Give the backbone structure.
Amino acid sequence: MLNRLRHAANAFGVLLFALLFLVFVVQVTARFAFNKPLAWTDELAVILYLWAILWGAALVCQDRENVAFDLIYQKASPALQRVMAIAGCALIGVLAAWALPGSIDYIHFMQRESTPVLGLPFDWVFAPFALLLIALTLRYAWRIYRLLGRNWRDHL
């Protein structure tokens, strides 16, 4: 079941990028071929880009796929790597959990406003940010749990 959910998350991410590319092609064609720029394409491209990046960061990219400056980490012993990984996970997870209530409150507040051209409510535009914070909190709590377990070396 987890593989199906991961596949669905990846498919939705691909759909977001495909729509973003299509909107971008329409935008460039209208601007340069017909000399008639379309305002809605600019707005939709920004929204789709925001959604694609936050969706991908929340549900598609794994920790090992992120760029990391890990010279000290790689030189450390496995026990110290474990401590460093737990500390890093705790820091990111706690900060994400701490930011979540205020972010959800602000996203909810933004339902009063809408985008200037398409009229989309801003709470829909910014909703994936809350998803990102939830995913970070859960992901790093789960990694800490695994690092505290018996087979912790497998999760470094």
